Amino acid sequence: MATRPVVTCFLRSEGEVLLLRRSGAVGSYRGQWGGVAGHVADDAGRDRDPETAARAEIDEETGLADAVTLVRRGDSLQVADDDHGVRWQVHPFLFDCEARTVTTNEETTETAWVHPPEILTRETVPRLWTAWDRVRPRAATVREDRTHGSAWLSIRALEVLRDEAALADAGRSDDLETAERGGDDWSALAALAAEIREARPSMVVVANRVNRAMAAVADQSPAAVERAVTESLNHAVTADRVAAAVAAEHVGDRLATLSRSGTVRAVVDATAPEAVLVAESRPGSEGVGVAETLAGSTAVTLTTDAAFGHELDAWSADTLVVGADRVLPDGRVVNKAGTRSAALSAAAAEADCYAVCAADKIAPRATWDSEEREPQEVYDGDTDIAVLNPTFDVTPASAVTVVTERGVLETNDIEAIADAHRERSEWTERR
């Protein structure tokens, strides 16, 4: 039996993946659902790198090649196809996708964005779940990722719980990460939820969103966990989008920002300002990437962190828009180091300052752990010098206005949301 390499690509957006129903124009598995798929060899029979083939198939079958970012390439798997006398060597890929409008070719009859557990119930190409299992997020994704922000990781945390609950409900113990934790299904899922919410102590939104889901579980069953987590995931996706829309109603035409926030980017996209001033945001230089991304749609000025406060005034910024790592119950905002000085400079320049985030970033308690980056990023010499390289700083409530999906918040609003988060965090004691 000949072995032929193929790719299966999962395009992920807002916690869902794209499935395509195969038409009569394809040579196998007609009428069944699959990811974006195709041969590694091109039409002339020439071998390609699997990732090159994956991106080409995404372009041909969805028109979304320019909207995707590779997240992970999984270990390949083999699928024996006796009807065609071939063994498929499947190379699975996961891509994040910024768009959801699909342009199909003749190989597809319909498309659907679905939560991945639907793979377990649809008529799919063979071993589609196994391919997903090899690229899906795990607890380690939340614990070890140092590239993405807290909002992104909070969605991944919920995806882990959702998929594990669905597998437990389907009796698919071979794929269960929770099996390592022992006990019955509920105990294992609860243990995984507790582990994930503690995985990133500095990212309060991860814990809040896990707690929101687990506090809403109707009964101690995998199906109930899956439903509650999926609802929490949908809430999270909507909250981030609505928060940006609310903020867009309040900002001016000359915006300033620092660091990198997906919510702030959504505000800029929604308002189409005449110009944006961006701080470089050392040491990670996230602002440089933000400036490059925005340059195609508006006039962008990139400046140093040291000059940012001065340029806010000289450049005539009318609004400073920042994200938030967390909002403390008294209205103070913890965010990328440099936010405090930028906010105080904005006040001096008579510019508005908004911290835009989902309400799930409001901390249930006023405590937070200061986080230090590597001191070598600041000083790599051998002189005995104490080095401070904080990741975050704290902006006083008087210098910033917090905007969430619930609107512009006063301090008493923030306190009430913090109380609700604190109550949900006690789900382990109530079970």
From TrEMBL:
Residues 2-141 form the Nudix hydrolase domain. InterPro entries: IF-2B-related, IF_2B-like_C, NagB/RpiA_transferase-like, NUDIX_hydrolase-like_dom_sf, NUDIX_hydrolase_dom. One of its GO terms (biological process) is L-methionine salvage from methylthioadenosine. It comes from the Archaea. Gene3D superfamilies: Nucleoside Triphosphate Pyrophosphohydrolase, Translation initiation factor eif-2b, domain 2. Pfam families: IF-2B, NUDIX. PROSITE patterns: NUDIX. GO terms for molecular function: S-methyl-5-thioribose-1-phosphate isomerase activity; translation initiation factor activity. Keywords: Initiation factor, Protein biosynthesis. Belongs to the eIF-2B alpha/beta/delta subunits family. PANTHER family: METHYLTHIORIBOSE-1-PHOSPHATE ISOMERASE, TRANSLATION INITIATION FACTOR EIF-2B SUBUNIT FAMILY PROTEIN (AFU_ORTHOLOGUE AFUA_2G14290). This is Initiation factor 2B. It comes from Haloarcula taiwanensis.
